[in-house]
Amino acid sequence: MADRSRSGLEFGVLGPLQVLADGRQLVIGRKGMRGLLAMLVLEANRVVPIDEIVDCLWQDEPPATARTIVHGYVSRLRRMLEQADPAGSARILTTPPGYQLAVDPWRLDFHRARRLVAGARGKPAAIRAQLLRESLGLWRGQVLADVPGDPITTDLEELRLAALEERIEAELELGRHLELVGELRQLVGEFPFRERFVGQIMRALYRSGQRADALEAYQRFHRRVVDELGIDPGPELRVLHEQVLRDDPALRVGGLAEPVTLPPRPGVVVPAQLPAAASGFIGRDEELAWLDRLCDGRDPSATTIAVVNGAPGIGKSELAVTWGHRRAEQFPDGLLFAALNGFAPDREPVEPAEVLGRFLLALGVPADGVPRDLDDRVGLYRSVLAKRRVLVVLDDAWDPEQVRLLLPPGAGSVALVTSRRRLESLVVSNGARMLTLDTLSEDESVRLVDEVVGKPLSEQEPVAVRMLAELCGNLPLALRIAAAKLMFSPEWTVESLVAQLSDDDARLRALDLGDTGVGVARALAVSYRNLPPELAETFRAAGLVPGRWVSPHAIAALCRTDLGTAAARLADLADAHLLVEQWRGGFVLHDLVRLYAREVLGDQDAGRRTAALRRLMDHYLAACDHARRLIRPAGDGLDLASVDPTAPRPATAAQALSWYDKEWPNLIALVHAGAEAGLHQQVWQLVRLVHTYCVARVASRDWHGIAGFGLAAARVSGDRRGEMLVLHAMYKVNVRTGRTRGTLPDAERAHHIARELGEPRYLVMTLDQLASALSAEGRLEEALAHYREAVELARRDGDALGEATVLNNLAQVEQRLGQLETAAQHQFQAMEVHHRNGDERAYVLAVNNLAEMYTELGLLGEAEEHARQGVELARGGSMQFEEAFGRQVLGVVLARRGERVAAQAELAESLRLFERLGSPRAMLVRTALEALTTEV
């Protein structure tokens, strides 16, 4: 079973508790944290109630602060996981009534063990034994040996014993009786009542010529179960005993012994057809090791099949030929090679009958002895190789049917198939193993360029050579072409070639060797031309998406099809290695493949491309509008969620933020593409919609750049409302990031437009904006007047959202003026209105603001209560800014009460969250924490 990537976090319970970050073991800390993490890992992706956690950690005597201690453990574990892997491959979520570890099951050792055991069922004995050995190799000792309490792990121990029994059964089938006897004696002693081990040692002893010992093993077991349990052995064991007594011939039918490799006889040709291996083969150490393990662990009575698949130019053929030469001594009866031309330009795929004829001739069959009929050729081919161990390399296969008849029979032969497709049916029907090639690493790419050129360019021009590797996308074919140009044409320098490759419009032309027929675009063109029309359309659509990755939803919108069809088409393109599915539903184009797709798109009518881009923007407008309303209610009058009913629909605010996190690079690219295409209306609308996300995330990267595009688009299109809404969006993000100084002209412009439009809700929005800008300039009394006007207008118009927003900001200015009691009253009103409106994020912020005001009023009990409420609500709703603010206030309250240790802990966590968000508040918290730490 193929292993997943080793990047990110991995969790082990099959032994002492283990957490690996990119292969490096983390120190987990105290026993309680290990116990909690062990529970979350064992119940991964399921909620573990906090009461259950307390019961497990403390049995019948939990301390009074048990729940608080658990909260602290979770906080420290979260910090540990986030620091070890900021990408978040595993996260601890607060999900009432407890916590859950959200993680890909493949990152859990016991899940991999179970899958290996399940995958072994029904496989040939040799494959079964290998899979079960891999599974058992995951155990590092007693399950959770270093975890306190009594975690329930009996099912994992039973899994290990079942895997042991099945592995031994498979090896008995393979005839390894004598070598199993010692292991089985130990297992029978360790597990004396496990009947299957007893039956297996009886068969192993009998087939090793130790019939008396086999009978004695049964008698010992019989006496023990009768004396200690008062029962007889089971029916299967009794039948086996009778078979041993009467020397039943069925017992002598074990697995096939390892075949004897026959040396070549006089007159028998030993073919050596592999092409010459490329000199200076670079990298691929892991892939070569994978092939070595596959070869070393192969079943000597069966054929081992490996399919090496990958994108055009990735180096599949080179790997297969290089490995074949390196392991040639393992195949004393010959090396056969056939170029199947599955994806060769201007050539038809080679028929199996033709390849069989060549192979038979290479194996010494006279030309007049080669049968005409395909079935006869297959029969003769299998007969000739029946007891010979050979390596058969089938390069560039089109489909499984082109391969099946060319597979050698048993005797430990290996068939190595390369293809641009995955050929999954060979896995299902022939037990093939799959190896997918990725691009080279940066260091390997640099070494390859040096090797091809024949001199250490990376030492002479290190920066330029690394830039060259990046522009080639670390694709071996592209790297060899670029290096060949440097070698053939001395006038080319690395910098001049980098300059040419940096032009996206010229890069593919530069990666072509002209008359040789070798080029990246030519290699990709073969794959593209072989696509059916619907997949060719999908490939072009994927090239149209301006972002880094493509989703089935986006393809459904572009191709006007349903989501299931779009997902299936993308999967087919990934199968053809024109896309890579980097996560479920997330498909990425290699940079050079993207350039080729856009080159193909260049042949289309510009109007059709613009219409497709408009459909894509409508899709994202609908998705963004739906997602932003889950984060905060919208009061701007934009209703775009229905322009594409097939757009994704997150169900919660946390899911909406997660969707935005993932899509943000695509949204940035889409704003740029829409602006270039002149889709001004959709550009400003998209900018307005995403500002809610930027406020929640304390301004996301690239916000200010796209805000400028949005403002320009609204002004170019003459859309006054759009200009006002984008100006207001810029104000909201500036407030959250502390950049409100100098925004007064924009605020006055927005309010002027709102007065022209005459809509009360826009007047409320822009009065609030204007007051905030005045406050930032220190003109507090003017700001108060505008806030009060906005509150009255909102109440007259029934604009509850606007009223609550302005009340909150009004209270902040009153707080600055020292009018604390009035500020607290207005803040309390804002909190209640937000609560009635269901605006959870604004409600939590208002709770925290009120806690801060109570602190200044000296009402520390009320301040602590509200701050703790704000923190708990923010954690449950994935509101990092609000949680950080609540912890900041709570830390100040605890410090005033003299609880320095607790205060330091809250301020430290607040600082961590603010720094993660890039919030300017981090500086305030750091100052408070340093003062508290140095205080005597």
TrEMBL record:
SUPFAM superfamilies: C-terminal effector domain of the bipartite response regulators (SSF46894), P-loop containing nucleoside triphosphate hydrolases (SSF52540), TPR-like (SSF48452). Signal peptide: none annotated. This is DNA-binding SARP family transcriptional activator. Belongs to the AfsR/DnrI/RedD regulatory family. Pfam families: BTAD (PF03704), TPR_10 (PF13374), TPR_12 (PF13424), Trans_reg_C (PF00486). GO terms for biological process: phosphorelay signal transduction system; regulation of DNA-templated transcription. It comes from Saccharothrix variisporea. InterPro entries: AfsR-DnrI-RedD_regulator, BTAD, OmpR/PhoB-type_DNA-bd, P-loop_NTPase, Sig_transdc_resp-reg_C-effctor, TPR-like_helical_dom_sf, TPR_rpt, WH-like_DNA-bd_sf. GO terms for molecular function: ADP binding; DNA binding. Keywords: DNA-binding, TPR repeat, Transcription, Transcription regulation. The keyword DNA-binding applies. Residues 1-103 form the OmpR/PhoB-type domain. Residues 1-103 bind DNA. The keyword Transmembrane does not apply. TPR repeats lie at residues 764-797.
